[in-house]
Design a protein that fits this description.
- By secondary structure, this protein is an alpha/beta fold.
- It has a domain of about 150 residues: Nutrient germinant receptor protein C, domain 3 (GMP Synthetase, Chain A, domain 3), CATH 3.30.300.210.
- About 25% of the residues lie in helices and about 30% in strands.
- Strands 1, 2, 3, 4, 5, 6, 7, 10 and 11 form a nine-stranded mixed beta sheet that branches. Strands 12-13-14-15 form a four-stranded mixed beta sheet, sandwiched between helices. A two-stranded antiparallel sheet has the order 8-9.
- A hairpin with a 7-residue loop joins strand 12 and strand 13.
- Helix 10 crosses helix 11.
- It is globular, with a radius of gyration of 26 Å.
- The protein starts with a helix and ends in an 11-residue tail after the last strand.
- About 0% of the residues have low confidence.
- Keywords: Germination, Lipoprotein, Membrane, Palmitate, Signal.
- InterPro entries: GerAC_N (IPR057336), Spore_GerAC-like (IPR008844), Spore_GerAC-like_C (IPR046953), Spore_GerAC_C_sf (IPR038501).
- It is a lipid-anchor.
- Belongs to the GerABKC lipoprotein family.
């Protein structure tokens, strides 16, 4: 009798343990790694990038240089959820959204305040999607963007779109932007949000003699309180990087002309914005402190002279970027945001009275101090101060 009871208990446990009927094996799901969204004539158009993880997983069997196929799915709908859900009809197997690393938006979305909010609402509500997703814009077709590979035929997960941190650490220009931060900044008064623009270029890289397109961030769209104010090239935005404390490596030539005398790498800027409120007018004093390392010299120049030349380059880039935003009243340096955060009463008085206007003389003074901390391994061509 005891044997029968024990057998019954074991049989019952086995039935319970094997009861995960809805579990799915890894290879039987479609993993979305990037999402592209556009908005045209009242309809959302969604593109998803799908990778076979067995081809991109790090393992001893991974063949470096082996082509990694990319699948692209497309859906349409009157809402974001309808556009994404329409992909299920032809996906053949279950679609999993928990591995999305980047979202790319077209100008059609940015131009429609309601469409942008619907996208954030739909994506952030879905439990599989994470909050730390990179956010980009593009002017190119999603077919080109979502099928882009990396050097050595590495997967799209090893590109600027999905892994931009190392690239930004080596060349700090337009900082990668995460969706959760953009949501907060778009809702902040006086804040200008910079959305990096992904493009592809065939000029720089070749595989043997075959041209290979590569990602490049060639500029950014600017938005203020969910309103698109314009697109600016990378050259237009040079001055923004001096107000980003995370800028780790910025290359400059001194002086910035056709016959430079040297090259410096500037890092870790410390910006300070002082606001001057005079009745119905706001002006600003800007102070930038930054460290520098000598990378190259074509002429024997003193350390003090190099510091002064570098400071002049930084000053000119800040002024140039500021002036690029004047025609569209785009506060690219986020000067007005400083008033909102530190002098809210003055901000509301000026804003409600229509006096928060960028003018040619709104910047009162720019003080830049560059300190050279290293002259490189070769010191013989640097004169003492």
């Amino acid at each position: 009798m005891k044997i029968i009871i024990k057998t019954y208990i074991v049989f019952t446990i086995l039935l319970v343990v094997s009861g995960c009927w809805d579990s799915k094996t890894i290879q039987n799901m479609t993993y979305v790694t990037a999402l592209g969204l556009d908005y045209e004539e009242g309809h959302f158009i969604a593109y998803i990038q799908v990778l076979n993880f067995s081809n991109v997983a790090k393992s001893d069997k991974l063949e470096l240089g082996k082509n990694v196929p990319v699948w692209i799915g497309k859906g349409e709908g009157k809402t974001v959820v309808e556009a994404l859900s329409s992909i299920y009809a032809t996906s053949q197997i279950r679609v999993f959204w928990g591995h999305i690393k980047a979202i790319v938006l077209k100008e059609g979305v940015l131009n429609n305040k309601l469409a942008l909010r619907q996208i954030y609402d739909a994506i952030d509500r879905y439990h599989e999607v994470r909050y730390n997703i990179l956010l980009y814009t593009t002017k190119e077709s999603f077919s080109d963007i979502l099928t882009q590979k990396s050097v050595l035929n590495l997967s799209p997960l090893d590109t600027i779109m999905d892994s931009p941190e190392e690239n930004f650490a080596q060349r700090s220009f337009i900082q990668p932007q995460y969706g959760y931060k953009q949501i907060a900044q778009l809702n902040e008064k006086g804040r200008t949000v910079i959305l990096p623009t992904l493009s592809t270029t065939k000029k720089e890289w070749q595989e043997d003699r075959k041209e290979k397109p590569m990602f490049k961030i060639n500029g950014a769209y600017a938005m203020q309180e969910h309103v698109l104010t314009g697109w600016f090239s990378e050259d237009d935005l040079k001055g923004v990087r001096w107000f980003d404390k995370k800028s780790n490596r910025v290359f400059v030539q001194i002086p910035d002309n056709k016959k430079p005398e040297g090259s410096l790498v500037l890092s870790k800027p410390h910006p300070k914005i002082e606001t001057l409120i005079d009745q119905d007018k706001a002006r600003f004093n800007l102070t930038i402190k930054v460290r520098a390392v000598v990378e190259e010299m074509t002429k024997n120049v003193s350390v003090k002279m190099m510091e002064e030349q570098a400071a002049q380059v930084v000053r000119e880039e800040i002024l140039s970027t500021y002036r690029k935003g004047l025609s569209t009243q785009t506060d690219l340096l986020n000067l007005f945001g400083e008033i909102y955060r530190n002098k809210p009463q003055a901000w509301h008085r000026l804003h409600d009275g229509g006096h928060l206007v960028l003018k040619e003389d709104s910047i009162n003074k720019i003080d830049v101090k560059v300190k050279i901390t290293q002259t490189g391994k070769y010191k013989g061509r640097v004169l003492p101060e």
